[in-house]
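Sequence in, structure out.
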Amino acid sequence: MGFFLGEMRYTCKTFGTHPVSMERVFYTLFLFICVAFPSLIPSAAAKDLLTMGETLGIDEVLVSPNGTFTMGFFTPGKNTSSRARNRYLGLWYSSIPDTILWVANREQPLVDSGAFLTLTENGNLALVDGNKRSVWSTSVTSASNDTVAVLMETGNLVLKQGANTSLWESFDYQTDTLLQGMKVKYNPTTFESNKLVAWRSADDPSPGDVFFQIKYYCMFLFNKTDIIWRSNSWDGKNVTYSKKSSVVDRDIEIWVHFLTNTTDTLLMHVLASGSLPAKISVNPAGTLEIMAVQKSKEIWEPYQTAPTTFCEKYGRCGPWATCNDYQARPTSCECLYGFIPKKKVEWDNGIFTAGCERRTQLQRNNAGNFKLIDDIKVPDKFSVGEGNTEAECRLKCLSSSNCTAYLFRNHSSPLTPPCLIWYGDLLDVRTLYDGEGRNLYIRLAASEIGENGKSNEALRPSLISASSVLIIAALILIIM
């Protein structure tokens, strides 16, 4: 590993006694940097690939062709416990080495300085400790002797066979971060995607309790089994979102495209103006963060976070109540039309967990009528109903005495059906605006609607912050 200064080339080795004291001072300082921060020292022979039999040692790195990304070994945080000896293979933006974007062996740390990464004879990448024991491998079965491992300019580590065949990609095995071009795979049969799992802590990259997942056409943030945040339901629309950010001093465009030629992949594009990258990460503290590189400071700056407001947190007002961050009243919670607080004293004291209950119960021998509630976030725990028109969707709900609400949306994709039905309480209802809300019809006793069901005046709660809009646009992902 070398470093050029003018025409003098210094290397990380001992030169002995120097007659010029200033040179000796400079060399001593440079030697300290070589030893303490080896990955920060540029190399005249920085490489972006490993061929079969080659190794990458603890103090060596791979650098993408234009130098945007670096991959090497790191020790996380500033912990002085036994974990401080743990080493991991990770990826970082070259000028911001403190923020790790991907970790290979997050569950199997290396604890000795003799560890290395190698491309084995069977064509797999393997992390090997000082005792020659493999702690992590790509486990590809179809590799051959012309396989190479390449760090691409996108940050994707790829096992390639020949010029055009990719056998394995790190982008398919995300940890806690989504970079441009990464995919989240969604299974339309189980209605679930793979997970992005936060670090255990800032000093421990092992999988923690907080994770992101797509379930039933919504994005969720969980802490173990508890829901922290849920997005609005995706209706299949392609989205392009562009906004000037004073925080990162440039425009950021979020592109979300539905790939009709695939069946289980949601593809996210996060495109920042210029060549500097953006990312989306799951934080151990329980937040989902969009971040971009601040070009004048070379640091990751937060662009948007969820949840941030009272109403963005899951189910804050309990069942049968809507949450509104911007309504001018002491509380953000309000019972839906036809409902009253279930525990009035608690409700009046700002404790909304119990939510609301019907003022007039539905009679099983009475079909009841529907009340339009517009501009709201799609409630949680819906079922897919049979119906390609609003009339068919309505009839589907009326056919069951247990149906409590229905929603029909004209724009949908093959994997986001138009008719949604609820058979229980409505949870996580929130006021939306700027076209992000949906029209929901809730089932009420005829006496709540008016004589003969003639009154159908919509309840119109008002505004919400734009953060959920941006998070959805940034994270929605396209079904393969």
